[in-house]
Amino acid sequence: MEKSINSNNSAHMGRKIERIRRLRGFSQTQLGERLGGMSKQAVSKLEQSEKLDDEKIERVAEALEVTVEGLKKYHEDQVLYNTINFYDSSGVSASGICCNNIENLNTFDIHQAMSLYEKLIAGERLKAEKLRKDKQ
């Protein structure tokens, strides 16, 4: 793999790493451990670096449990936008909480559901019988 300096995104790569690290809930020490025993000071220096080679970006992305593309294209405004608008675009609303709007997300046919429940009930009956016998 050819090493190249990240130039496709002009934003400060170290700041992106710091922001994502904080969003993921990792301390600099924890990220350092995930990067193979890197010291807290080395992680701090990494977060101050404006540009990093692709190999280092891949290692950091793996340690942060994000994709390389996600790390490279991370933009705080987009995260804020998605966070603010998440519920609006998901169809979740507080008005549906008190209503009788019950949406059935079940993909079972009614006969399949009845069969499944009957099997579950039969299993529970067997357990109850076994407990009764053990108790006697």
UniProtKB/TrEMBL annotation:
User: Superkingdom, according to UniProt?
Assistant: Bacteria
Q: Which PROSITE patterns match?
A: HTH_CROC1
Could you give a GO molecular-function term held by this entry?
A: DNA binding
| Stored Gene3D superfamilies | lambda repressor-like DNA-binding domains
UniProt cross-references to InterPro entries, sorted A to Z: Cro/C1-type_HTH, Lambda_DNA-bd_dom_sf
What region holds the HTH cro/C1-type domain? 17-71
Pfam families in alphabetical order: HTH_3 (PF01381)
- Transmembrane stretches, by residue range? none
The name this protein goes by in its record: Helix-turn-helix
